[in-house]
Amino acid sequence: MISVFAEDNRAFLAEQYDARRSPEHALAARAADQLLRDAGMKVPMLPCHFRIAPAEHAALERATRLLADAQDKVLAHLCATLTADELVAMFDVPAEMAAHVDWQALPSSGLRMLRADIIPTADGYWFCELNHFSGVGGGEAYHAAHLHAEILGRPVTGISPFRQLALQYVTECRRAGLTRIVVLDTPGHRAQGYGQHLMLQQYLRLLAPDIELAYHDELTYPVQWLEPGEAGRTLVHRLVTFDDTTDNGAFLARLRACGAVLSCMFEAELKMHRRWFALLCDPAHHHLLTAEERAAIEQYVPHTAVVGPGDVDAMVADKDRLVFKRSYLYGGRGVLAGDQHTAEELRDLLTRDADATWYAQRRVYASTVDLPGEEGFSEPYHLVLGMYLYGERASGVVVRGAVDSPVVNGSRSAGMSWAFVV
């Protein structure tokens, strides 16, 4: 499918910016930014909202499901054929994390909750990450963009990803007899400006007022809730990854040992490892998949491969066509665009740490749209989209944009917004 996302939105954005001379535009931009600040977010709102054609949204939703299904099948196969030690080596699992992984539970899909990051390009949409995590960010952009459109006098309709996640949690609580939900943060994560999922908390209060709802970190979590009787009726919504814990995951492991149900544990984080696209691209695994799943990989996943010791010379020679990624690093860390480094620099970076595993992925170039910058001059913004999938409920798409780097993520984003199905 040829991506028309950027082209469709040029006219759509021009209509919004025609109104920049009116007070409504300034009011809308300020209100959307204020909503994000009230939600604890440091990433600002892009001064616009986007649209996506229904057929394109449906295709991306279907592709997200197919790739997630394919990943589950490959994971089940790996768990059936490899030992725990072999899985630790394959996914570079830190020893501190490996100690808390329930290897028996690893093949189980559990609660499906993910955001697929997707690059719109001139020749189609390409998936760049599958983020399996309950605390994945960006959902606040839906609410900010919805408010922006309403105040601008251009109302839109859509479904918040937090509504989808809240329904998943309420359904699980009813099924398992759980009567309490705790949103679990850490002081360090809270200070980073990724929010406290306040909109999720609001939906939970509205959808299930009988379920006790609380927000805590490891320092304020009530000790009595660690007793088996109390823990056994509690669902814990994790906001932080293993890297953001201050105790190498010990408190999360304690919660699970006490009987609490966690939205996801470290097993899910293994599904975010950057080896996964190499595994999906590996023909050795394609016999496990349906024809539809294989077709989705071919259409939406840029070819990805492990950079072995004997591959460095060839990869460096082809560097301008590749991007290199490393294990679990988030926020744009561990991502090298080959054409931004000399051959000598790249070779040094790829071989400096003998224990590090790098993955080479075919470079795709994000479409850009021109948006007014701080000085009023138009600047090209690189875009990355995000499709949320909670159980079978999809919600998309969040739009993140950056001016100074084609690597767009939470820490490098100049702003975020939402694309409504129009």
From TrEMBL:
Name used for this protein in its record: Circularly permuted type 2 ATP-grasp protein
Biological source species: Streptomyces klenkii
